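Quick note —
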Amino acid sequence: MPWTWYAGACGMAESRAARDGRHIVAIGGGGLSRQPDYLALERYILALTGRSSPRIAFLGTATGDADAAIVRFYAACSVLDCRPTHVPLFRRTVDLRATLLAQDVIYVGGGNTRSMLAAWREWDLPQLLHEAWQAGIVLAGVSAGAICWFEQGVTDSLADRLSPMACLGFLPGSCCPHYSEEAERRPAYTRLIGSGRVRPGIAIDDGAAAHFTGTELHGVIAARPQAQAYRVTVQDGNVQHNALEIQYL
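Predicted structure written out below.
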């Protein structure tokens, strides 16, 4: 469901949104790599805050707060100029509102999108995340943490097939990650959009990210050679893939 109805309730005259704008960065895959050369996307995200040593919180809900994902987050942050923390939902959970609204970046990890959103709704996280976005806190994430911000996403949460699912609706349209890396992604997304089951949207390769300011696409960045993103639309009854201009970091 789009969040137009909620936006008015969250406006703050002197919010960081008014000063810095609202940012969402959706990474197609491969984020938080242990290889320093591939942390360019994370450096780009941190730079959007305009702060030295910004605060960044990791939501690892999509993997059930798996230790490996949390360790990977802290390992990446150890070579970045930031102040990291993680926010668990499957262990003793902190005051979510106080913790999340104190951040400069909220970074969502990959995993099972359907399970992640179910847990988030139980904890009222959609409302908190929308409030954070309206306040100018940068929202970002990879795979499940990329598609969750859109009206719809294409997910592999079901083991036997790629399927559409309703997401948070902060951003219009749909999103499909891992586009060139997984052979079934392109035909599935093409088929789902062509049949009308999924709205037109954006497809993102691993190593590439779509940066939105407000609800508009600001640009696409990439940390790996040949990583690409596509605007996928329907024209005269045919599904069209239009490669987007890429800024390689």
